[in-house]
Specification:
The protein is of the alpha/beta class. Among the domains are: 175 residues, FAD/NAD(P)-binding domain; 137 residues, no CATH class; 61 residues, no CATH class. The chain is 28% helix and 14% strand. The protein contains 16 helices and 16 strands. The strands form four sheets. Strands 1, 2, 3, 4, 5, 6 and 16 form a seven-stranded mixed β-sheet that branches. It has a five-stranded antiparallel β-sheet with strand order 9-12-8-11-10, with no helix packed on it. The longest helix is centred in the middle third of the chain and has 24 residues. The N terminus is likely disordered.
């Protein structure tokens, strides 16, 4: 409850759209709404916007680039422009940026800040925390937030609210129902749900797998930006508070038992870094970035991995408790780096390798050169009008593509991939809950608008901690996908305001058409790109069941039977006009005709 003093000092502000959470998904929602002419308040707990994208996650987790467009593609384009402008198109830094998909955190921060600043209708409020949600009936009417430095309280009134937090804090405070933990296999008929022990090389299930649901969540870590440039290095000369080498001795067992050997199957972009093979330094997953920097994740494969179970209380904790959990994980992370660089039990060549990598002096300059955002892989998950499950992300027996959703507003594409939920257990040679990159099963899939709509709370959209199962969240929870959902939420908020309806009543067909104007991908095809004149039409009708595979075959002549079937699926009366079926009319041209007719 707010104190009487705070109530007395309360100030009020009113906006069309209020976004709480400056993650990439929240940022995309704010920009999208502002570009539609709406006034936007963008409120963030930390002193920075951008979430993990600006706080250490320097390589974009994306397998199929063609499946993610819209604002995320705009972001990567601006990142690439930065490296080309500053270093030249043929430079090593431009090459290492991989067309803007790999970047230094400071560059991502700069790009995000400039994208937000370019929209004159966005007011940004950093270092603020949610205090209270005010509702009128089932509808969110206002939120009260306090400045973390001054404790001054502001009431933000809005026509539509968007929860852009990783934790689902706004909708939880609004009383929306949510899930926490893992469903059982039986609940949604998901093969990988519940308690699971899996060989990460073969992906086969191991003894102990029961599929039972529980409240456990994947481990949180920090994503580091380390440098090999001695002039830019902050060398750890002392261990962090609470350092205990016993936390890390398990890594030596992993090394001695061969768990740091090269993978059986090499794959670019998953943290396989040859210089660390067969060394204890493979406790870190390293990827090269521009300017002699590296994106460094904590490798979840070793049994010595100490980060699991440390975060169980985090999702529902208050921010004081969350800060303590975050500090504990920060110290564990710095402790691991110190251990690898200094502990005499580490072979000298391994220590020498670890000593090549240090915190970068020109990154996170206001936070001890350490990332400010904890990597919250999964917390609360909304219970919405639709729950995305593992079965939405795999190709079913009746189709040559994943499940079709008529209200698809984005595409997902990253493989199911979830960090361990438990520490090392006697009798097991893998960590429980670790599911590594099910790229042999996951295929590009459609994400329905309904996953962002709470069951009963109105005036609210949820593009980040959306309505999915634990397994489906492990593929949706990537920043490129969240930016796509954020863009959809921002435009949906605009449409809801314009039509004077709740978000649940927004016409998904109109929303889809507006998203397609802005380069969003709502249906993935492997044989077309945005240069195709029928691209938008094919995307749109891909949500209506026109295509049973990832091949649009847009250049081939359409046959009469297919034309009649598509005509019926589009809800048109009678039969297609004769001139639409003249010899040589292609499938793409027919879709274009129909797309224009449906817009009238």
């Amino acid at each position: 409850m707010l104190s009487l003093y705070l109530l007395a000092a309360l100030t009020a502000a009113e906006y069309d759209v209020v976004v709480y959470g400056g993650t990439p998904g929240g940022v995309a929602a704010a920009i999208a709404a502002a570009r539609q002419g709406r006034s936007v308040a963008l409120i963030e707990y930390h002193k920075h916007l951008g979430g993990m994208t600006a706080s250490g996650l320097g390589k974009s987790d994306i397998e199929t680039r063609e499946a993610i467009g819209g604002m995320f593609r705009e972001f990567t384009g601006k990142v690439y422009e930065h490296y080309v402008e500053h270093y030249g198109a043929q430079s090593e830094n431009a090459r290492l940026s991989r067309q803007g998909y790999y970047y230094e955190p400071s560059v991502a921060q700069r790009v995000i800040d400039r994208m937000v600043a370019a929209e004159g209708k966005i007011a940004v409020f950093l270092h603020h925390r949610l205090r209270e949600v005010r509702k009128e009936g089932n509808r969110v009417a206002a939120i009260r937030v306090s400045d973390r430095a001054t404790n001054a309280v502001t009431e933000f009134r809005g026509r539509i609210f968007i929860d852009g937090t990783y934790e689902g804090d706004l909708y939880a405070a609004a009383g929306a129902r949510y899930r926490l933990g893992r469903e059982s296999r039986a609940e949604f008929n998901e093969l990988h749900a519940g308690v699971v022990y899996q060989d990460y090389e073969t992906r086969t299930f191991l003894a102990g797998t029961t599929g039972e649901g529980d409240k456990r969540i994947p481990a949180y870590t920090y994503r580091l930006c380390l440098t090999t440039d001695a002039a830019n290095s902050l060398v750890l000369t002392a261990p962090p508070p609470g350092y205990d080498r016993a936390h890390y001795l398990g890594y030596l067992d992993d090394w001695k038992q061969g768990r740091f050997a090269p993978p059986k199957e090499m794959k670019d972009g998953v943290g396989y870094f040859a210089p660390t093979f067969n060394t204890v330094v493979r406790a870190l997953s390293i990827a090269e970035l521009p300017n002699r920097k590296t994106d460094v994740n904590m490798n979840p494969r070793p049994l010595g991995f100490p980060f699991a179970e440390e975060n169980y209380a985090y999702p529902e904790a208050d921010w004081e408790r969350r800060e303590k959990i975050s500090a504990r994980l920060r110290h564990l992370t710095l402790g691991l780096l110190y251990f690898l660089q200094n502990d005499e039990a580490i072979p000298a060549p391994h220590r020498a390798l670890a000593r090549r990598y240090h915190l970068a002096k020109d990154e996170f300059t206001g936070n001890g050169h350490f990332p400010w955002q904890l990597y919250v892989r999964e917390a609360r998950r909304l219970v919405g009008l639709y729950t995305l499950s593992e079965n939405d992300t795999i190709v079913g027996p009746e189709l040559g593509r994943t499940r079709i959703h008529a209200d698809s507003v984005a595409a997902g594409e990253f493989p199911v991939d979830s960090f361990p939920v438990r520490k090392r257990e006697p009798g097991h040679n893998v960590l429980e809950g670790y599911i590594f990159m099910l790229d042999r099963m996951t295929r590009p899939y459609q994400i329905p608008y309904r996953v962002m709509i709470p069951e009963s709370v109105d005036g609210l959209l949820v593009p980040v901690a959306a309505s999915t199962t634990h397994i489906a969240f492990s593929t949706l929870r990537l920043e490129p996908t969240w930016m796509a959902l954020g863009q959809a939420a921002g435009i949906a908020a605009h449409l809801a305001i314009g039509a004077a309806v709740e978000p649940r009543a927004v016409d998904p067909n109109r929303l889809q058409r507006e998203l397609l104007k802005h380069g969003q991908v709502i249906t993935y095809f492997k044989d077309i790109n945005q240069a195709d004149p029928a691209y938008a039409a094919l995307q749109y009708f891909g949500t209506k069941g026109f295509f049973d595979s990832y091949v649009a075959d847009a250049k081939s002549p359409i046959d009469a039977e297919t034309a009649r079937r598509w005509w019926r699926l589009a809800g048109q009366p009678e039969t297609p006009p004769a001139d639409w079926l003249k010899p040589g009319t292609t499938r793409g041209e027919f879709c274009n005709h129909l797309y224009r007719r449906n817009s009238q």
